[in-house]
Amino acid sequence: MPIPVQRKPLPRPANPVTARTPTPKAPLPGIPIGDSVPAANPHVVGRVVPVVPGIERLYFPQRPSTTPSRPSTPPSTPPIRAGVNRELQTKIAPASHVHSTDDLVPTHFHCILFGSEDSRKTTTAAKFVTDPEDARIIVTRRAEQLIPLIGMGYKYVIAQDTEVVKEYLLYPERKFGAEWAKRPEATLILDDLTYFADIETDANQTRTITFAGGEEKEVEVRDFRQVIRSTKGTMFDVICRSVMMKPMHFIAIALDRSWLPNPKEERITPAVPPSVYKMFGADFEFILYIDKANYQLLTSERRIAFSHTNDKGKPETWTRVIAAKHKLPFLLARQQPPILKHEEELDLRAIWERVKAAGAACAKGAR
Predict the structure, then answer these.
(1) What is the pTM of this model?
(2) Which residue from 4, 17, 162, 357 lies 20 to 30 Å from 216 (Cα-Cα)?
(3) Distance CA 229, CA 275 (A)
(4) What is the pLDDT of residues 312-356, one digit of tens each?
């Protein structure tokens, strides 16, 4: 039987590309101890770049990049929030200053008035003022929607572009004149909020990016959540943090919309994105719904329960919720007779006068 011969494995040849010279014990001229110099590879054409004066290093040449240059930061105009913050620097009290709710008296009327088509929204909002010179109307659709106001002397502007609407909401005292803005009952009416939200959402579906070479390109925003987030941020800046903090009344007119948060509940709210409505619901003191069945104003939420028999013969119930709200001092919320009834006449001025008088009386009694 032959005896197997054990052969030693041959040594692996060093890769000339990755081979490196050992670190010298004594420093070379111009190279500190610990550095290593790549070995020259005769099969690779490289480029010599000086590392230290008098010493050169051989390395692989850089390949030209095949990927397009990454776009730089796109903003070409200052963001709206920066302008709003500058406007509010002199209006917001320092955070360290402590206030008292006894000194808090309602001074201006902030309201979202919504309902279905042809429910007298524009007329009801315009009649809030006793003098037409106190009102300025921003019309986002055609001027014909103001036909019910013919012969009453109201002033209005047509703003069918989102940038124009934002300009009038951010700086109404500049657009309509300082003389009007200083009137004690100056009232700004947006007709309507639904169309403003629609055109702002459409504008946010594309974005302009600027590449490193200066080239600009319109790209589509594929994530619709980012679109709605931009819309919500813009409307928060121009309405909640700008026009609602100015010394004037503000009424926003909107259409209604019906949507189903769950299969057994139907909600009727202003026709804006749900996240935008939640933001407005927290900031506006009044959200009033015009019930077209009897032309009454709903001042608080209404819940209507329905029941029917399904295909299997079992009873099912579902609820319709109509959004509406108002804010009153807690000490007067349960006063009898109530300051505001669940249904009121289409008279915003009467509602405001009662709420303002009640708030002033409550604050005076606390003193």
Answers:
(1) 0.71
(2) 162
(3) 9
(4) 888 888 899 999 999 888 887 777 788 899 999 999 999 999 988
Maximum CA extent, the chain: 124
134/185 Cα distance (integer angstroms): 6
> Measured between alpha carbons, how far is 166 from 244 in angstroms, rounded to an integer?
13
Whole-number Å distance between alpha carbons of 102 and 186: 26
Residue among 264, 262, 272 at smallest CA distance from 323 = 272
Q: What is the pLDDT of residues 73-86, one digit of tens each?
A: 444 445 566 665 55
CA 214 to CA 280: how far, in whole Å? 39
For residues 339 and 357, give the distance between their C-alpha atoms in angstroms, rounded to a whole number: 10
Q: Quick one: which of 123, 186, 118 has its CA closest to 151? A: 123
The secondary element (H helix, E strand) that includes residue 56 is strand 55-59
E strand or H helix that includes residue 84 = helix 80-88
Encoding tokens for residue 98? 């402590």
Transcribe 312-358 into DSSP letters. Answer: TS-EEEEEEEE--EE---GGGTT-SS-SS-SEE-S-HHHHHHHHHHH
Contacts of 206 (CB under 8 A, 6+ apart): 218, 219, 220, 221
Please tell me the distance from the alpha carbon of residue 82 to that of residue 10, in angstroms, as a whole number. Answer: 72
